[in-house]
């Protein structure tokens, strides 16, 4: 059976990748492990769920968009976000997610910079 796939904009994919990168750093789980299609260890699965929740709350995305950006369906995104909401009852997780939300919003608010601006002279 073919995996669930919906066309996603490059911008959404970049924003989802930013949430994954922050979650990978915060939970000490490699992104490659979080995004594998086969079964992953519980720590990696929960880190991915946290990244999905982070994208949902920081970007204001509906669950369907979260699912599409992460290559999953809406039901999976919903389950991930419900789990993360429940975990926010833990003060340590709540504080960490507050910090990650602020960090992601701050990064996304930075101005875009052209990495190859045209210059008048070449050396």
TrEMBL record:
Protein name: Chromosomal replication initiator DnaA
InterPro entries named among the record's database cross-references: DnaA_C, Trp_repressor/repl_initiator
Chromosomal replication initiator DnaA C-terminal domain location: 15-84
A GO BP entry: regulation of DNA replication
Record field: transmembrane: none
GO molecular function: ATP binding; sequence-specific DNA binding
